[in-house]
Amino acid sequence: MKLFSLFIPLMMVLAFACDDGKRTFSETVTVTPVDPLGTVGGVVFDASTDAPLAGVTVTVISGGYTFNATTDDAGIFQLTDIPATGGVFVMYSLDGFLPARLQTSFPVAPGNVPYENPAITCEPIWMFNNTGSFQVRLLDPTGVPISQVPLQMVVPAAYYSVDQWGNVYFRGDVNRVANTNAMGLAQFRDIPELPMSGSINFPNVRIYVPEIDLDGDGNPEFASTTRNFDLHTTSDTIQVIRLSAFVPGDLSVSASNNSYFTATPTVPGQFSSGDSIYVLFNREPDADSLSVVLREFAQDGASWPLSPTLTGNQISFTLPDGLVGGEMYLLTVYANTEDFGNTYTRTVPVFITPTEALTVSMARENPMVINSPVIVTFNQWVGTGSQFYTFLTGNDGVVYFVYDLNSSGIIGDDFSEYGYTSTNVGLESLEVTPTWVPGLAVGRTGFSKRWRFSPPAAAVAGTSVQFTFPFVMSSAYLFHTPAGDTIAPMTGSLP
Q1: Please, which pLDDT band fits residue 341 given cuts at 50, 70 and 90?
Q2: What is the Cα–Cα distance from 36 to 63, expressed in whole angstroms?
Q3: Furthest-apart CA pair in the chain: how many Å?
Q4: CB count in 10 Å sphere of residue 133
Q5: Which one-letter DSSP state was computed for residue 12?
Q6: How far is CA 98 from CA 72, 158, 354, 487, in A?
Q7: 481 lies in which domain range?
Q8: Which residues have CB under 8 Å from 255's CB, separation 6+?
């Protein structure tokens, strides 16, 4: 009887399961979203004394919320219950010191899934006293002082940080304006007070002098100029800038907070929606001729005409809302001068501050071909920042495999094996030059989202690939973001 009672339910199950192949079954897996909370901490030092800095107000903005903490006697702060989603902004302030700010993000698991109870340890930062000053005397070619000229000073470092490998990075900038008096003297105040000479390799400061029209007839007597000074050796003395007589020439840019307008930087910096960009020309452009256009990198991408504000020789404009973090846009500035008819057209990259942590993925360039090259794709623009260093191999290579490529029984005793001193697998940039834009400033930036390498035939699919970015021998090949942040080692699986 027991056997019979089991037989009937079993037949019913089989009947439903077979159902002549017309019935299908599916299983639904429900994932409940979570909003994890994490911890943000760090340490702050006094750049003048190298001692921990207490009493610094630290403001953390994450997930639309603001949190505050104060550093203790050891310069340490910690905040808990921070929404661990998206980007995190950390700002530092203390009376008598220049403010500092940085952006970071909580770590995420593969698939961009937040960890439970994640933590951010911010890079240690060194804050400068704002008690420094600098004096400049402006003279004409015969040595006569020139008064009532607004000079602009840019200090390319408001604070500095040190990453886990000991690399020092100067962050932010300090902009000051001072007018020359009857003696041609201008004094800039509230700039960094540097420690004693030689303790840090502080970057040079820049003084911008506009073109000067003394008699107001519309024709300048003196051309604009830029001078660099070392605060370590010149801050205690009055520096003299002797101007040259004006020589008409092409309309050019003397200064900008997007350094691609003036040079080809390896660390160009990053911007966000709502940030302002300024461009200082060597003479006043014609207001009616000005045109500023921001466009997506793709040839057929969207574009945004921007409205520049002209103040003397300088134009400024604000980046529009909705720019995508981690992307690169192209900015075109057009201007000319009415008096000399000189035309200026230049297109430069604009890197947008990322809102997500850096990730990497890999895929075969041609899945149908055995040992096809591998395309490495990042979600941000990364690289060396130099158009000349876009292929990494040998002692400056980064691609290694956790695999016994030479069948010796040991991993790490031959080229490209993880643990060996060098690799013969090169990582090549696939950066595209946007030749479709006018006045392109640089053909290649040294940054790219897409890179490529050709794995050795011995490495099989699923082999762990190690990208050892911080450990190249030459600093010229050091991988970093446009903001200058070093790329930590990353791992993937060979497709």
Answers
A1: low
A2: 11
A3: 122
A4: 15
A5: H
A6: 19, 6, 25, 27
A7: 360-493
A8: 152, 154, 206, 208, 226, 262, 280
Residue type, 173: D
Residue 192 sits in the same domain as residue 277 = no
Task: Count the domains in the chain.
Answer: 4
Do residues 339 and 434 touch, judged by C-beta distance below 8 A?
A: no
Question: How far apart, in whole angstroms, are the C-alpha atoms of residue 195 and residue 131?
Answer: 12
Whole-Å CA distances, 65 to 271, 288, 366: 22, 43, 46
Distance CA 303, CA 330 (A): 9
How many Å separate Cα 467 from the centre of its chain? 20
In this structure, which amino acid lies at residue 375?
A: I
Single pTM value for the model: 0.62
Output the six-digit token pair for 310: 């002209």
- Structure-block tokens of residue 449: 């989202």
What CATH number is given to the structural domain containing 282?
2.60.40.1220
What is the enclosing helix (H) or strand (E) of 70?
A: strand 65-70
Angle at 264 between CA 252 and CA 449, to 5 degrees: 130
The two tokens of residue 233 are: 């050796």
* Type of residue found at 135: Q
The tens digit of pLDDT for each residue in 347-387 reads 999 999 998 899 999 999 999 988 899 999 999 999 999 99
280 and 191 co-located in one domain: no
| Residue 58 · residue 97 · CB < 8 Å | no
Residue with the two structure tokens 């993000």: 105
Give Cα 452 to chain centroid, integer Å: 22
